[in-house]
Amino acid sequence: MARRYWLFKSDPETFGWEHLVASPGRTTRWDGVRNYQARNSLRDEVRVGDRVLFYHSQTARAVVGTAEVVRAGYPDPTQFDPRSPGFDPDSPKEVPRWYAVDLRAEEPLPTHVTLEAMRSVPALREFPLLRRGQRLSVLPVSAREWEAVLRLGKLA
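RE: above sequence
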């Protein structure tokens, strides 16, 4: 199966690039996703070896690094933990509602790639992140888009 590319969004105040890099083995569980379309991607499409653009949402709004998926979709344990902000009392353990993957940090981008920078590149004209109203935290990225973002970030 061919490697795929993704963009994962995170609020840097909650869990940013620096948090990922500081995690043991530069690896973390990507959990807390509570959108069905994003969940479907994590559960059904994201695979070990896939590459990820790590995007800071909210005020930063830029791709800041790359990561690799090191564990494919599995039931998100936060949905079963009443102390977790991701707790979902309606999610049955026998048929979990929410999924997580594990990510390992690869490289920071020497230049953070802002939304404004991406909007100016013809190769990114169809990039899902640039569509109005795009709120998903997990987005597919084509190989062409991946390369264009890395070039903007001075990593390719």
